[in-house]
């Protein structure tokens, strides 16, 4: 399913309002850099003070109704669609021919999902061109058709429905993960926006397909498919399967016919049409295509170009070759989520490819995570599909875990460890507010399943399972699961059975505690040395009223002479002591030394152990943990020296963590530290590390690094330029304004965010028009920060000058489709209430009319 980029950002915002979130944030890697391609979050988020009032975590068992898989009365066998568009009215004019059969019991009635249609006719075909009219009733949601007789399960039948789909007349829905759910979207339909192309595209998950064609819109249905798509001649089209024919029509249109021969679930049906450039590639003779706006056709392969290698890697790893006829990836404007794994044709938000060559140098392998995620869904989600949304992690956990698998394969163990760390952090942030089982048979809304539990927690659970059974057994089990359940729907028990049949071990304990129970272990770990033994004390301190006491296989490493010895232990109790044999007092004892556990671990270590860990650790996670444990000790010469040495670590994220550990350094090595920071800022090869060095330099108040900042303003990396602008915003010089003004017209999100921060803090009335203008063309991920900074600027302006800015903020707070943009606009307005109390009723009215409950909760905390 779609990459839940929006949900992650909302989660971050919620955590900003809690004091407990600050502890989590303090342990984040300073290397975390958000990119629009990866998630719809701003590159930099202005800090928000935690108010006195805090949200109350909800960890109680759900009282929502049980949500079973849909009862199957009919099997969808095949769907044929003939569609064209009325662009002016934003309608789809369609004819659907459905082939079905009763699933088991004889049926004389068919109920289809069909939302907001004008139904013109319903006919029984059964293989003849001229159909027989059937009686039907329609309530704008369900189309109930009375068949001509009762059909047994051995007999297929065909119905043809002529209809008009009117998606814009549907009630507005959506969720944090999918901002709208109307299924069919017209972008710039009349061509009035010169900065945006005309496009039409669909988004089916969860039940959006029935907004544009009649179907049984449930994930436990499967059908073959053919779509005849009539568009104007200049458009390129895309759908599932292969393009089998294309003919020009006398009215200046063209009809493309796309056919998919293997069955898939209705929610995976897609179409897209627009003025795309199509960049072609190949893998084992199958066509691979990248659909992008024409200006980005020359950089498309830099973004998508590893797709054939991914196809090869995943096919070999799973022992199941990519199963579909082709693989296409299309980037569309205003997509309602991060990305979507439609069968053989994934859709991505435009931000994934909207990079010039200079920007591509900054984004590292971030977009590849999204590409890998959606590609892995072609096996887990498309080839084998969850039978119900309660079992969604059977789709999403695997797609999430593919990001680690690809990072490990392409970029090495440290890159995979960074994925592991980031994903664990994402889940733990969400777990501050809610704790749910991964497989949730109780939910209020199926969209609630698209959260950091289904994605990030699920991926970490799979990582633990892999480490427990071993790589050979893990991937053999996945092969068994895929081959036994291919082209069908599945549930958790089938995954468990595949692992049990492979390993010969009863794994109910693992699947029960990790998939069916809520929460995670919270561990306190201490150790001592006694009588040639390490005495390891482990306590599970989580609240066990609604969370289990976990069974945890863990590896503990004891280090001597620069070499580790591994000890496997099994934790089964809330309070447990282990005795590990050693020849002498170890230099280091490291619990869960590979960072496998999905847990919060409070491990007591001495400064000497942490220093040893930093210098001897073989992986990023251990080095990062050591740096975090030593941050408060940087005044110690041995610690600051260790951090300076870490600035040369082979892995960039370790270097960034070491830089952040030197922030506001006040120790005896002050001069040497500052020289090292300036050297990194000017000479480091990786832009994100140079940017981090500049950020750390700016933490030294009343110190002049203007020469470094001036050089950084000319850097090839936008991240570095943005960091320099942020640094100068704290200590502007006489030349700063002219230097910054030269960057005003940038389209880069990182730099645009930094400029809004600069003008928010240092701008004058002369910069008012810049905010008015750029708030019209800034990406949504920038607007959240920009609008709050706009409010900061207006606080310093005469009230009589603020009218246009207030109108802009109010309009965006009321109407912008992205909730985090509405939040940014609201916060911008709120800053003005001290000097303009007349705005308070407007803010109250905005709160009262807001329909998003999570946003309402955040509004209530802004005081």
UniProtKB/TrEMBL annotation:
Keywords: Aminopeptidase, Hydrolase, Metal-binding, Metalloprotease, Protease, Signal, Zinc. The keyword Phosphoprotein does not apply. Residues 1-21 form the signal peptide. Residues 306-514 form the Peptidase M1 membrane alanine aminopeptidase domain. It comes from the Bacteria. Its EC number is 3.4.11.2. It catalyses: Release of an N-terminal amino acid, Xaa-|-Yaa- from a peptide, amide or arylamide. Xaa is preferably Ala, but may be most amino acids including Pro (slow action). When a terminal hydrophobic residue is followed by a prolyl residue, the two may be released as an intact Xaa-Pro dipeptide. It holds the Pfam family Peptidase_M1. InterPro entries: Aminopeptidase_N-like_N, Aminopeptidase_N-like_N_sf, ARM-like, ARM-type_fold, Peptidase_M1, Peptidase_M1_aminopeptidases, Peptidase_M1_dom, Peptidase_M4/M1_CTD_sf. Its cofactor is Zn(2+). Residues 28-61 are annotated as: Disordered. Residues 80-268 form the Aminopeptidase N-like N-terminal domain. Belongs to the peptidase M1 family. This is Aminopeptidase N. It comes from Hymenobacter sublimis.
């Amino acid at each position: 399913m779609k990459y839940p980029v929006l949900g992650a950002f909302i989660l971050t915002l919620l955590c900003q309002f809690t004091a407990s979130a600050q502890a989590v944030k303090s342990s984040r890697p300073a290397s975390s850099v958000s990119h629009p391609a990866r998630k719809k979050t701003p590159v930099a988020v202005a800090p928000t003070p935690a108010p006195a009032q805090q949200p109350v975590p909800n960890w109680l068992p759900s009282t929502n109704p049980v949500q079973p898989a849909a009862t199957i009365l009919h099997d969808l066998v095949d769907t044929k669609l003939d569609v064209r568009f009325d662009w002016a009215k934003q309608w789809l004019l369609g004819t659907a021919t459905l082939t079905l059969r009763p699933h088991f019991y004889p049926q004389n009635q068919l109920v289809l999902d069909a939302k907001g249609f004008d139904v013109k006719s319903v006919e029984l075909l059964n293989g003849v061109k001229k159909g027989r009219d059937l009686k039907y009733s329609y309530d704008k949601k369900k189309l109930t058709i009375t068949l001509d007789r009762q059909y047994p399960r051995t007999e297929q039948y065909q119905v043809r429905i002529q209809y008009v789909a009117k998606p814009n007349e549907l009630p507005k829905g959506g969720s944090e993960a999918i901002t709208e759910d109307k299924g069919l979207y017209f972008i710039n339909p009349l061509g009035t926006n010169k900065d945006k192309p005309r496009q039409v595209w669909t988004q089916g998950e969860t039940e959006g397909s029935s907004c544009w064609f009649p179907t049984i819109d449930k994930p436990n249905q499967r059908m073959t498919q053919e779509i005849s798509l009539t568009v104007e001649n200049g458009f390129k089209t895309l759908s599932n399967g292969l393009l089998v024919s294309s003919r020009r029509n006398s009215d200046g249109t063209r009809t493309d016919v796309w056919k998919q021969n293997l069955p898939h679930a209705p929610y995976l049906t897609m179409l897209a049409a627009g003025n795309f450039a199509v960049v072609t590639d190949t893998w084992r003779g199958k066509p691979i295509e990248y659909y992008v706006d024409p200006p980005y056709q020359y950089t498309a392969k830099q973004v998508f170009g590893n797709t054939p290698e991914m196809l090869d890697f995943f096919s070999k790893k799973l022992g199941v070759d990519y199963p579909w006829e082709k693989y296409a990836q299309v980037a569309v404007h205003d997509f309602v989520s991060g990305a979507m794994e439609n069968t053989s044709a994934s859709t991505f938000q435009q931000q994934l490819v909207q990079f010039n060559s200079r920007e591509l140098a900054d984004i590292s392998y971030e977009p590849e995570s999204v590409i890998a995620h959606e590609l892995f869904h072609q096996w887990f989600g498309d080839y084998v599909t969850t039978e119900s949304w309660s079992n969604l992690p059977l789709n999403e956990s695997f797609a999430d875990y593919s990001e680690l698998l690809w990072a490990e394969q392409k970029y090495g163990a440290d890159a995979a460890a960074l994925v592991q760390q980031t994903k664990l952090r994402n889940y733990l942030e969400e777990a501050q507010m809610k704790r749910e089982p991964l497989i949730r048979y109780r939910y209020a809304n199926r969209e609630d399943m698209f959260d950091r539990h289904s994605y990030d927690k699920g991926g970490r659970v799979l990582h633990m399972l892999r480490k427990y059974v071993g790589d050979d057994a893990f991937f053999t089990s996945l092969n068994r699961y895929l081959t036994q359940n291919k082209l069908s729907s599945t549930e958790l028990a089938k995954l468990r059975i595949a692992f049990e049949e492979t390993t010969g071990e009863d794994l109910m304990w693992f699947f029960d505690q990790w998939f069916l129970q809520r929460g995670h272990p919270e561990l306190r770990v201490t150790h001592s040395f006694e009588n040639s033994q390490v005495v390891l004390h482990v306590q599970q301190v989580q609240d066990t009223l609604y969370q289990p006491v976990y069974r945890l296989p863990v590896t503990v490493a004891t280090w001597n002479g620069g070499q580790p010895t591994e000890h496997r232990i099994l934790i089964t109790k809330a309070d447990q002591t282990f005795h590990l044999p050693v020849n002498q007092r170890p230099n280091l004892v490291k619990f869960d030394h590979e960072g496998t556990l999905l847990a919060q671990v409070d491990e007591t270590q001495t400064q000497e152990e942490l220093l040893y860990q930093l210098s001897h650790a073989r992986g990023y996670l251990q080095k990062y943990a050591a740096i975090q444990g030593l941050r408060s000790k940087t005044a110690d010469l041995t610690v600051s020296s260790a951090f300076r040495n870490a600035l040369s670590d082979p892995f960039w994220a370790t270097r960034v963590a070491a830089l952040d550990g030197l922030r506001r350094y006040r120790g005896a090595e002050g001069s040497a530290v500052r020289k090292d920071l300036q050297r990194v800022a000017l000479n480091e090869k990786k832009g994100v590390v140079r940017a981090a060095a500049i950020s750390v330099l700016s933490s030294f108040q009343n110190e002049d690094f203007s020469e470094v900042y001036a050089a950084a303003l000319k850097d090839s990396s936008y991240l570095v330029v943005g960091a320099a602008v942020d640094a100068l915003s704290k200590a502007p010089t006489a030349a700063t304004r002219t230097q910054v003004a030269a960057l005003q017209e940038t389209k880069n999100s990182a730099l645009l965010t930094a400029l809004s921060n600069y003008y928010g803090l240092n701008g004058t009335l002369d910069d008012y028009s810049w905010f008015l203008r750029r708030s019209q063309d800034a990406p949504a991920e920038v607007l959240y920060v920009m609008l709050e900074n706009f409010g900061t600027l207006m606080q310093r302006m005469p009230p009589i000058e603020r009218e246009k800015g207030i109108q802009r903020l109010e309009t965006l707070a009321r109407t912008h489709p992205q909730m985090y943009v509405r939040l940014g606009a609201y916060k911008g307005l709120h800053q003005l209430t001290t000097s303009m109390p007349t705005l308070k009723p407007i803010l109250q009215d905005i709160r009262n009319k807001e329909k998003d409950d999570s946003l309402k909760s955040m509004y209530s905390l802004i005081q």
